[in-house]
Amino acid sequence: MKLELRGITKRFGALVANDHIDLTIEPGEIHCLLGENGAGKSTLMNVLYGLYKADEGEILLDDHVIHFNGPGDALAAGIGMVHQHFMLIPVFTVAENVMLGHEPVKGGVVLDLPTARTLVREISDRFGFEIDPDDLVENLPVGAQQRVEIIKALARDAKVLVLDEPTAVLTPQETDELMVIMKQLAASGTSIVFITHKLREVREVADRITVVRLGKIVGTADPSSSTTELASLMVGRTVDLTVEKDAPKLGAESFVVSNLTVLDATGHRLLDDVSFTIREGEVLAIAGVQGNGQTELTEAILGLRTGVRGSVTLDGRELVGASVRDSLDAGIGFVPEDRKKDGLVAEFSVAENLMLDRSVGEPFAKGLNIRFDYLEEFADKAIEEFDIRTQGATTLAGRLSGGNQQKVVLARELSRDLRLLIASQPTRGLDVGSIEFVHDRIIATRDSGIPVLIVSTELDEVLGLADRIAVMYRGRIVGIVTPDTTRTRLGEMMAGIEA
Ligand SMILES: Nc1ncnc2c1ncn2[C@@H]1O[C@H](COP(=O)(O)OP(=O)(O)OP(=O)(O)O)[C@@H](O)[C@H]1O
User: Fold this and answer.
1) Domain of 356?
2) Cα-to-chain-centroid distance, residue 178
3) Last residue of one domain, picked from the residues 387, 416, 445
């Protein structure tokens, strides 16, 4: 099926998120949309999926103009979308999730449970998804849940599949599996619109690349272009993808974690006897496949978990048993892995979000009153410094693009007086230009004599930032190594293979 977007324009108030966009998606092609944070990629896809109504322009399928009044119409026309935040019901089985929206109702398209089960099995076998229709969705790893979303779309006969940053939440192995699946789908005639900030993935699967900047299409790129070429096309300037840093100037061992254990409600060890230290002016990066205790580690340090045993000290002050307020006041800056859930309040403005985490009182408040003049000035400065693409400080954080939401969290945490920075997946969802900026800021924090704990599933990021690397596997630290360790060895450690 040939899909054509002609002159699509979408405005949010005075902001033109999509400015007369023309785009053609040929049958069976993988078409990558590249563009910096806030360029308008997700907005365009939401128009295509019927979630937003375009102010101008039209959508054509096989040369016929079509009108969508919602995602139901888009689905019926053969356009499927896999969201980054899955829309599945965790307590339902795979087949039940696929059936949703197709229950036997009068006048509707019926998909009963036995048919849904057969369909899941058929699609899974055809593309090697390894999904059992009777598995409960909540028991599946993230990569498998994503495959269920794809099955859901294919079960509705999707001819065009939109994947909006699908690899942001995947492990490297799951990402490789998804790349294979995408190629198979394209070979079977499904068209794929693929949005990603990871240039390696673009080079691996793209048949065609379209570059969007400030709501406009600025050109196309050849998939055989180098990552450096793609990066500069995307953000309009040269980007240095390697992290430049001097040897660390190490100070005191100011952050000490000793025998830290986290138990769940049933007494199961989520974090098992973890010990490490970080010196002033040093970056320790935790490498590991997501779900091996990293989340529990950072949450335990911050005081967000119960069932914590052992000790965590910052500048000699014990933090186990302390409140989150105490930890923040001790000087911990925290960038959580899930910005939507833990990093921001979507209904608060950008400025209000930049003020969160602060102790009550000066300079943001006088008595019980917020000092709005100070807040505004502070927010404007942070917006400029961190290049947060927003209409202004009073815009609601939930209205920003994903990457720009991440920049709000980073701006807030990096602008406090820190004694320790903990950053989980600090560059998730960021474009290459912003990644370069954030990496520079993290190194500057280290160079100002602050200990830094990075948690990242991106091996490139770990290798670029770390002075030492601690590898986590099944709740334990299996080794602490230097950044000249080979990727192969790190991969083995991440899989729990001993030397
Ligand atoms: N519902 C909305 N209301 C107001 N403005 C919005 C809304 N959705 C998006 N925008 C704005 O439209 C612009 C484009 O955002 P969009 O999410 O499409 O960017 P993107 O290219 O997908 O970015 P990212 O790579 O960060 O995900 C941004 O300036 C964003 O703040």
Assistant:
1) 348-416
2) 16
3) 416
